[in-house]
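Session log. Operator J.P. requested a structure for one protein chain; no other inputs attached. Running the standard single-chain path with token output.
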Amino acid sequence: MMRGAKPLVSPTQYLAAVNVLSSALGFAQGIVTARQMGPEAYGVIAVIAATNATVLNSLDVRLADLAGKLYYRPSQASLSELRAYRASVLQICLIGNGLISLGLSILGFLASLIFIRTLTATPVHTQWLLAQSLILALANWSNSFDYLQRFSGRFYLMGTWRLATRVATVGLFFAIFLPAGNLDGYYHALLSATGLGLAMTASLSVWIWLKYERFPLLRRGLWLAGSDYGREFRFLFFGNLLGYVKMLHRGSDVLVVGFFADDRITGLYKLTRSLTDSLYVLFDALNQVYYPRFMELLSRHSFAEYRRLAGRLFAYTGGFTLAVLGLEAIFLPQLMRIALANRFAGAEDAIMIMTVPFMFVAGVYTWMWPVFVHSGRLARYTAYSLLACLAQYAVMIGLFVVWPPTPLAAALGYLTHYCVLIPLAYLLLAQSGYAPCLPGVRAKAAVA
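Structure written below.
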């Protein structure tokens, strides 16, 4: 079946279609959960998840990004040697991320026990905190498998299996959650579904690497790439600092809202994040296909092709974002009333504001990040990201102080992050030897 599909659709189109269907299932899961739980209980879910996510993101050394850099390292080795090296790159990344996820899930649980009472007035059960810490750890490790799959280029197989995994996990979630309809049932359902998702994603990864790539997994030479990982200490150091920035940007924002606002406003903002985050399944489709492509082009110094692909991505995603905003302006109020029985009224403007960053992430970050990974220039990017976070919270908290907290104020702060980061990062690259890769920049400079 996949052989027949290849001439008809590109890998990006196929993954985008799969991800849209997958997103629709996830969207339905989120809508049913929100409607069943209500904004107050949904706000409790938000602060518990945000507390654990903040701790989980406190140590993110970007091992998967470094794995991509090492995987596409130019080499004159034989095919068997190259397979052994690449297998080692993947396995070290997975082992490292697995251990990090496990350790941070324990810390996340302890942090929740200590701080959760300051973020919500609702009585919180200890088993909810434990379940959430395990959910995020399992999901984080599953994302590592999913990320590394893209290097194989088996996009049609990956997309089909991803959709099957989403159907299975959503079905399992509903089977457990709907009969209970409470927070106990929610965490039981989500933990079970996340565990199933990890098992299915890891199984596909192993299948691809053994059957198609013929990698010698779990054999001699497991640590073959260990010295190369060690030599990239600077990359790992600034990658971890960047993880702190990520934690501030997309983890702690819900906690800040929860600190200044009541559970209802927090629940509205959580819903806003959840609905707009569903757009990023399209970014994921683009990134799975284009990240290895961009890394390969950089390794060959094919800057003209890189620039062409980058410009096309920006044009397509900009047009798509404008179209989504137009549809939201017309249909969003009615959809909110129908789907959520008007229980989440007041989130419409915030949802539209939170849609705009998709243009920056899918249209710019998709091709900008591979340049930073390839060049190893994470120090300045990390500094700019931190500055963007400071601007994000300055706007958010400033609006909270001047007016009563609203999800719109939090959304404006979130958008500010990208309005600061992307121009600064673009200017940095425009003044570097990678300028020929950038759309809209005329430069004769090139990477040595």
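Operator note: The first helix runs from residue 2 to 5.
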